[in-house]
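thread: overnight batch results

M.L. [08:02]
morning all. the overnight job finished for the chain we discussed friday. pasting input first so we're all looking at the same thing
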Amino acid sequence: EEQLVESGGGLVQAGGSLRLSCVASGFTFDDYVIGWFRQAPGKEREGISLISNFDGHTYYADSVKGRFTTSIDAAKNTAYLQMNSLKPEDTAVYSCAAGGVVAGMDWDEYDYWGQGTQVTVSS
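M.L. [08:03]
and the structure it wrote out:
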């Protein structure tokens, strides 16, 4: 069964850092784009980053550009989202998703989704 599991969330003070992990089972990241999404209470889901394992292309939303970095460790079948200089407005449930080569920042373009991990940034 194909599955994605996120970890690494938690409570951090503003200005701090967290690294989220997204581990795949039942398939490999070899032929996938890995997207990162977040959803804050009362707000719509936001696509914040993606990385293509096809060509290494990355994308960051303006809201996280310069602070967040996404990467893939193919040997571990794990994707990471390094989050630095966290702000209270980054508080949300963060989820990863795996999709085909045309996947972008639309949740519906992906094939597999994780359950999410909570990130809370205190001021």
